[in-house]
Amino acid sequence: MQNSQAKQVLARNGKSFYWASLFLGPELADRAARLYQFCRFVDDLADGDLPDRLDSLEDIRAGLSDPQHPAVATIPELEAFIALATESNIPLNAAGELLDGMLRDQHPTALETEAELLRYCHAVAGTVGLMMCRVLNCQHARADAFAIDLGVAMQLTNIARDVLEDAKMDRRYLPANWFAVSISPADIARASNNSHIPVAAAINQLLELADQYYASALIGIHLLPWRSRFSIIVALRVYGQIGHKLKRSGLQWWLGRTVVNKLTKARLSITSLIDLLSGVGWKKVPEHEASLHKHLKGLAGVD
Q: How far apart are CA 52 and CA 244, in angstroms?
């Protein structure tokens, strides 16, 4: 039975992903929506203002480490995810690392280096790419590395889009060593004129980095089952467009979020069809570029 509630959560909160899921077919779309529902649940919990959110996140983390933990029976969203993980052979260590990232966000954040940035992106999004590989019935072990790259690219885009919003929650994911002078989350939150240019430059660097991971992910998509490829290319193109639009607008991060409208999504879907039918799809997928994961050693799905 398909989970209509999960689809409603996806349609309401993940419009770009919902658009992409329309091309998956009912069964895979349902499973993708169930994965998104769990990820959205823990993300909303982490970013919310409930007084017991830290305890709740720790309970979920414990349940992922031990499916017999009492939390599994008392948190419906966790119980539903464990069922999906069993059904789809999702590695629970990936979900555990996702929770580690959410737990880290419960404290003020001011990253120092690009390595810290990429490890954080792997935790909160690379792991989701890894889990999505299982949801989509991918049989190629090599696909994991490329799936992680798509998650990392999307999270880098998220960070670029949400710089101001994150700063207001005392979070600065832009690495300190990308700035010539110290800029704190509070400085960004104030959006003063003297912060506009250096933060915009850092966002540009962030988007350039994201493009490297998108390019890798686009190659690896051809390891996915045929039915899933088009949907994931659409998701990649639509999400990547957020960064392109942000650049075209002059990286004016202080104006708030950048969004992609429905007409642009439709246009990008046509572009995605061209990607799918191009000669790339018929060529042997090359080995994954190891340098993209040099900072991710020891994490889920990384050799």
A: 38
Name, in order, each residue with C-beta under 8 angstroms of 234's C-beta and a sequence gap of 6 or more. 19, 20, 23, 265, 268, 269, 272
User: Which candidate, 99, 106, 114, places its Cα nearest to that of 205?
Assistant: 114
Condensed to tens digits (0 to 9), the pLDDT of residues 69-119 reads 999 999 999 999 999 999 999 999 999 999 999 999 999 999 999 999 999
- Looking at this protein, which amino acid is placed at residue 246? L
- Distance (Å, whole) CA 201 – CA 102: 27
17 class by beta-carbon count within 10 Å (0-12 exposed, 13-18 middle, 19+ buried): buried
- Please name the helix (run of DSSP H) or strand (run of DSSP E) that holds residue 120, with its range, or none: helix 114-121
292 vs 152: CA distance, rounded Å: 10
Residue type, 12: R
- The 3-state DSSP class for residue 172 equals strand
**pLDDT tens string 206-221:** 999 999 999 999 999 8
CB proximity list for 143: less than 8 A, separation 6 or greater: 133, 220, 223, 224
Tell me if residue 293 falls in helix, strand or coil: helix
What kind and span of H or E run contains 215? helix 193-220
CATH numbers and ranges of domains, the chain: 4-293 (1.10.600.10)
* Other CB atoms within 10 A of residue 88 CB: 17
